[in-house]
Design brief:
Length: about 1000
């Protein structure tokens, strides 16, 4: 059983490589892999069919008692085979449906979903079940959202509703663990708590039912499923017919052992299911789009299954499971047939589809068989399952009339089912306009055969129903452990009420077909003025209005009043509380007042005053860097060389990045009234005194913490390293570091994402459009021709010294970076510090360029960040697999040298930090404007244009690689193929080997390059 899960996990890893190799045809190989995984699961299934319940348990989070526990039973086996077999068929179908290309996101997300679904149905731990439940929601969201802009809003609405169910299940999980004292799912469901504590049982039953109803699209959560039809047809065929919605059904069946006799569970599922069955059928008949019709029909069919599960009897569980199987077959096939019709007719609108009956007779036959099974017409499997549902409805808890009432409602819903099946067949194949074969599209035989396989399987299965008896029996025993009755299916049970109900449905269906023009016209008129998306939009609008009203008290663009309020509270706390407890405080620690501290305090005070009083942004940044350097000296004086080195490098990189950003800002700060500034100064002094008082009262009087002493005494023996700071970061608190590393990576991605949503003209406005406050220059520049004038207005020679420096200093810094990384486990250093040293090389290289050019390949920063985080995660998985705990380090010796896997983790930190700094330099350092030109004017096709990359183009290239210019899209649209630039010029990017202008040639000025004066050799000129 664990091999099944591991095989799917391995498939997740290799799928991107498969798609890179095979492209759209990857579906064939992945489908074969699914069949192989199903075969691998067969021994486990055979054991279950023999009456066993194989289990496997592996430690996951021992401190919380959470295990990766797997348990196979009748329910798990059926849903596993549905996920794998239907998944394989859909993957084959996709090879004909998808457009040519890699389609990596589609195949990868489909495999991730299958893995999550299989692990969900085999899980025997409530926490693992919850994690898998959320993974299916996330995979569904991404599979819908990948279909482009029209799918963005539906994907978010889908995620909103399914996450409501996720929160409900999370609360239920917490209550289950607290009430039963175990996270083992089987033990929790068979606990005596449910009979002894009816209030807890009712609460958990409602929470689980709500979670299941959101995923299985039950009223009032049904709107997300039709909304999700924005996804590609293969996604709908798999997720919305055989997988996601079945996850909700699975959850109901899985928790039936505990709740099948609970009144709240019975009532909620029966009522919601029957309402959903009826409104789903009604709304299906309202539709013109055949795919949305199928979506509402799925809602209706799931309503019948939900209602029957709510009944809770043995016959009801058997009927629900049988209809799950039948529905997975005919509905997945019908969704795929919608894609076939779409390819043939070029539309899904029933009013525009031509008469395809003669033009596509095979498709017509397959569609008839699929709709016949859904309508419950003999001898299809759908007929057997529908009659089983009718039998189960007679067991509805309550009075005698409740069973008959439920049966009548189910029959009414089934009449609607027959009607929308008829609408599908007649609308798509019979009633349309004559076919214009010249305008008829083509469909792949692979698509048609893939759609036909599950549909046609319904016919022979109805004649070998005995093959389903034992699987259904095992499913019933899994849902109702005390079940004693055997399951026996038959196509003919004689003349009974179920058969009469089926005959009535067929009679009413025939009447509807004969009068279909009037009936369908009625349903087209009998629509609501709104749909689920409108309801969610209305709720969102109402919440926005409430937020806007509350926003009167919180102005996000002016944080000053709220900051003042918080700091005032801090000052009041310091000046009132400290005197009250002063007598009880321990004495101050020794060594707090040293001469070096006084000197540093004075210097920092002067630097802070310069920061606060300067009107020049440049002066402020320089003074701020002085504060940072002096604080670094203070840390060094306290005897922390590791932290000192980190602080020094962070200060250097931060100041460089700030200086780059200053190019986008006015040179000076706006002046404020002196009275206001005086009040702010007084307030700042009071807050500073309060912070000083609190520091002396709380931090200046305590001894070293027990945890700190523990690290000092035990860290070297446990980790094998003598640099306690580094071992804490990469071993003892590696999970915290991983979280910080992820935030660091997301910060870089966020920079790119924000820049990619703003058009080029708004990011880099001309310098003359940047408002400047009135100011008087402190120093006047000497006249033209002097050295001082050239140093300011002809600044390119200023980069020659840095370029000469980088030739010597660059290799030294690179070697130093590697040495610091290598020694980090025992001496001051480590991945973070080493990355900052390496970033200094990037900074020097960037600042030594004569013209503004990106450093390295365009997408290098994103690859570095991604590979860094991935390396850290892989290190954690290595610890989980081989050491039994995520991120647990492993130690060993090689050639007499001590090695640890935490060095691999540190390598991930190194790569991510390098990537973030490279991204910051390349993206934030763009300096093109009317005053600070970054490129040259070149002649292309008779037009002079600026050969320069601006901020938006750099942001786009970080994602898509070389482009011919900035994109105008602001919603993540991909660039057109012709927009991708051909990287034919090896000097377009600055590399470590670039010579720049070391040969002494000045860059060609604009004034020297008129349109009529450019020679042919200058047309392709670039600055190297």
């Amino acid at each position: 059983m664990i091999l099944t899960v591991l095989a799917l996990a391995a498939l997740i890893i290799v799928t991107p490589f498969i798609t890179r190799w095979l492209g759209r045809a990857s579906g064939w190989l992945l489908a074969a892999a699914y069949i192989g995984v199903a075969a691998l699961f067969t021994p486990t299934a055979a054991e279950v069919m023999a009456g066993g319940t194989p289990e496997s348990t592996y430690q996951w989070i021992p401190s919380l008692g959470v295990d990766l526990a797997l348990r196979a039973d009748g329910i798990g086996v059926i849903f596993t085979y549905i996920a794998l077999i239907i998944g394989a068929i859909v993957l084959v179908y996709s090879t004909g449906y998808l457009s040519p290309g890699r389609n990596t996101s589609f195949y990868w997300l489909m495999v991730i979903f299958t893995f999550s679904m299989v692990l969900l149905v085999l899980s025997n731990d409530v926490l693992v079940l919850f994690v898998c439940w959320e993974l299916t929601s996330l995979a569904s969201f991404f599979l819908i959202a990948r279909s482009g802009s029209p799918a963005q809003s539906p994907s978010f609405r889908t995620m909103l509703i399914t996450f409501i169910g996720g929160l409900s299940l999370l609360v239920a999980t917490g209550v289950i663990v607290a009430a039963t004292g175990t996270s083992n799912l089987h033990e929790a469901l068979t606990s005596s708590v449910w009979s002894a504590q009816p209030a807890t049982t009712t609460l958990v039953a409602i929470l689980v039912a709500v979670a299941a109803m959101t995923k299985s699209a039950q009223f009032p959560f049904h709107s997300w499923l039709p909304d999700a039809m924005a996804a590609a047809t293969p996604v709908s065929a798999y997720l919305h017919a055989a997988a996601v919605v079945k996850a909700g059904i699975f959850l109901m069946l899985r928790f039936s052992p505990a709740f099948h006799t609970t009144a709240a569970w019975n009532s909620l599922l029966i009522v919601a299911g029957l309402i959903t069955a009826c409104i789903g059928g009604w709304f299906a008949l309202n539709q013109y789009d055949v795919k949305k019709l199928m979506a509402y029909s799925t809602v209706s069919q799931l309503g019948l299954i939900t209602a029957v599960i709510g009944i809770g009897s043995e016959a009801a569980i058997a009927a629900a499971t049988l209809h799950v199987i039948a529905h997975a077959l005919f509905k997945s096939g019908l969704f795929m047939m919608v894609g076939v019709v779409d390819h043939l007719a070029g539309t899904r609108e029933l009013t525009r589809i031509p008469r395809l009956m003669r033009a596509a007779p095979v498709s017509f036959t397959v569609m008839i068989v699929g709709c016949a099974s859904m309508a419950g017409i003999p001898p299809m499997l759908g007929f057997v399952s529908k009659e089983s549902l009718f039998t189960a409805f007679t067991d509805t808890p309550g009075s005698v009339w409740t069973g008959w009432a439920a049966l009548l409602v189910a029959v009414a819903a089934s009449v609607l089912t027959f009607a929308y099946c008829a609408k599908t067949v007649w609308g798509a194949f019979i009633d349309g306009k004559p076919v214009d074969r010249a305008r008829l599209g083509h469909t792949s035989p692979v698509m048609l055969i893939s759609a036909a396989v599950p549909i046609m399987a319904s016919l022979p299965l109805s004649f070998v129903l005995f093959a389903l008896d034992n699987p259904l029996k095992q499913a019933v025993q899994a849902a109702i452990p005390e079940a004693t009755e055997s399951v026996h299916l038959a196509l003919w049970h004689g003349l009974n009420k179920e058969l009469v109900a089926s005959l009535l449905i067929i009679v009413f269906g025939v009447i509807i077909i004969v009068n279909r023009s009037q009936v369908f016209a009625f349903f087209h008129r009998a629509t609501l003025g709104f749909n689920g998306a409108d309801v969610i939009a209305g709720i969102g609008q109402g919440l926005r209005r409430i937020g806007k009203t509350l926003g009167i008290f919180a102005k996000p663009m002016n944080s000053g009043p709220y900051l003042a309020m918080s700091l005032s509270g801090l000052a009041v706390l310091a000046f009132t509380a400290v005197p009250l407890i002063y007598s009880d405080l321990p004495p101050l620690q020794e060594g707090l007042w040293r001469p070096v501290d006084i000197v540093l305090l004075v210097l920092i005070t002067v630097a802070v005053l310069v920061v606060c009083t300067s009107h020049s942004r440049l002066t402020t940044v320089v003074a701020l860097s002085g504060v940072g350097i002096l604080a670094t000296v203070q840390i060094l004086a306290l005897g922390a060389p590791d932290v000192t080195l980190t602080q020094l490098l962070v200060e250097a990189m931060t100041i460089i990045v700030i200086m780059l950003v200053l190019q986008k800002l006015p040179r000076s700060f706006w002046k404020y009234p002196k009275r206001l500034q005086g009040m702010r100064a007084i307030f700042a002094v009071l807050v500073g005194l309060a912070a000083t008082v609190l520091t002396l009262a709380l931090n200046g009087r305590r001894e070293r913490s027990d945890l700190g002493l523990y690290y000092i005494e035990n860290a070297p023996d446990i980790s094998g390293g003598h640099n306690i700071v580094n071992t804490i970061l990469v071993e003892f608190r590696a999970l915290d570091t991983l979280g910080e590393l992820t935030v660091l990576g997301m910060a870089g991605i966020a920079i790119v994402a924000v820049m990619s949503t703003v058009k080029d003209k708004f990011i880099d406005p001309p310098a003359e459009n940047i408002p400047e406050p009135p100011r008087q220059a402190w120093v006047s520049i000497r006249p033209r021709g002097t050295t001082a004038y050239r140093a300011v207005h002809e600044a390119w020679p200023n980069v020659i010294p840095p370029q000469l420096t980088i030739k010597i200093l660059g290799p030294l810094l690179a070697i130093s970076s590697l040495v610091i990384f290598w020694r980090g486990h025992n001496e001051p250093g480590g991945g973070f510090i080493a990355a900052l040293v390496g970033s200094a090389v990037i900074g020097l290289l960037y600042m030594s360029t004569a013209k503004d050019r990106a450093i390295g390949p365009p997408r290098a920063p994103m690859y570095l960040i991604g590979s860094g985080v991935a390396t850290a995660v892989v290190t954690g998985l290595i610890g989980l697999i081989f050491a039994g705990s995520f991120l647990k380090p492993m130690h060993g010796y090689f050639l007499g040298q001590h090695f640890t896997t935490s060095m691999i983790f540190d390598l991930g930190v190194y790569l991510a930090v390098i990537g973030l700094m490279l991204l910051s330099f390349n993206l934030l350092g763009v300096s093109d404007s009317a005053v600070t030109p970054a490129g040259d004017d070149v002649l292309t096709n008779g037009i002079i244009h600026r050969d320069v990359e601006r901020t938006r183009e750099r942001a786009d290239e970080l994602i898509y690689g070389e482009l011919s210019g900035p994109m105008e899209a602001i919603r993540g649209e991909r660039p057109e193929r012709e927009r991708r630039a051909k990287a034919s010029d090896p000097g377009a990017k600055v590399r470590a080997s670039s010579t720049h202008i070391l040969h002494g040639d000045a860059p060609i000025e604009r004034s020297d390059r008129g349109g009529d004066e450019l020679s042919p050799g200058h047309e392709q000129e670039r600055v190297k």
